[in-house]
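Predict structure. Chain length: 235.
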Amino acid sequence: MYAYVEILIRTVLAILLLLFIAKVLGKQTISNMTFHDFVTGITIGAIAANLAFNEKLSLSHMILSLIVIAIMSYLLSVIALKSRKMRNWISGSPTVLMESGKILEDNMRKVRYTLDSLDQALREKGIFNIEEVDYAVLEDNGVVSVLKKDEYQYVTKKDMKLHSNTQAFPIELIMDGKMMEKNLENNGLTKEWLELEVKRKGKQISDVFYAARGTKQQLVFDFYEDGIHQTIDKE
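Prediction complete.
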């Protein structure tokens, strides 16, 4: 019985420590990872797993190891910020895969990047014809950035000399049938105003799954009852 209790305590402790370390190291560690982030994530995960289930290893030793890894990762991040040379070694550097519409085979070979992977990356950018690409760069985090040739780029309002409207950051007003009172207060909005807007839709706050004020000050509502009797895809 004691063994089960110990595993339970160690597992909870491992999760709490991982959450704390992730908070300290920042969002980059859990986003698209660089070399440094990948190594840190794998190492911390292995130590945390041992902390949770390996009773032969000392609890204090595992915690110390996690703390050392977290401190090392933090210091490497600081060094990478201050030194470009060290940043290239710690996090890697971008690699140009296509230049002036031409595929750079040598660069692709150096980073062991295949044509299939390049095609997939371009399709994810909505590009199905490789002739549309002027430059393609493999970034530190493994994502391919693409610059289209001038003739294939989208036309913007600036290109057409159209008037641009001011945009605002969207504000979430209701989530899961509950008002986001802090968001209302921070943006000079009132509960009474929101209740009135919901009533105009013939609904109550509890009927609203999600509501937000969009970038053009428009109100967007999604209700629990959508009126869709049969969805296209159902899990």
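Summary: The first strand starts at residue 95 and ends at 99.
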